[in-house]
Amino acid sequence: MTSSKVFISYDHDIMKFKEMRDSTKFEKILQSDITEIGAKLDALGMDGILIFSRQNSRWNLIFAKHLGLVAQRTARRQADTISRSGFMLSSGERIGRGDPLEQLSADNIGDLSKSVQQKYISTDLSGFHGDSRQN
Asked: How far is CA 96 from CA 49, 80, 99, in A?
């Protein structure tokens, strides 16, 4: 019997998605709250996971917490291509051709949302008056 879900891991070091044959540990991870899955992928040393549901004919993409925005965008482009053209399994079966893709984890924008002062100045500037000299 074929599993209802196919798990494809993303390795940013080689910038590739690879089929995962042992899916039992990922079935358990998916039962977690979506906000916890990224941390669990971190613990497994994974950068991301692409999941194809045979039941729903749908792709889901989840990134580990440590993966930055640029790496996420690189993986997302590849996942978009996979969702359009499908993914060839080691069995020779092509799955997911033309099926929708949804990214379940939030983008990791790191400190991009912080102002320069929040990033680089660690002191409270209250009381700072600057240069009071007149030119």
From this structure: 15, 11, 5
Distance CA 7, CA 70 (A): 23
Query: pLDDT tens digits for 107-128?
Result: 765 544 455 555 555 555 555 5
What is the rounded CA–CA span in Å between residue 11 and residue 5? 19
**CB-based contact 69:109 (threshold 8 Å):** yes
Q: pTM higher than 0.85, yes or no?
A: no
Mode of pairing for the β-strands spanning 5-11 and 16-19:
antiparallel
Residues contacting residue 121 through CB under 8 Å, at least 6 positions apart: none
Question: In the numeric block, which tokens belong to residue 96?
Answer: 């997911």
Could you tell me how far CA 125 lies from the centroid of its own chain?
Answer: 37
Query: Which tokens hold the place of 6?
Result: 């196919």
Amino acid identity, position 1 = M
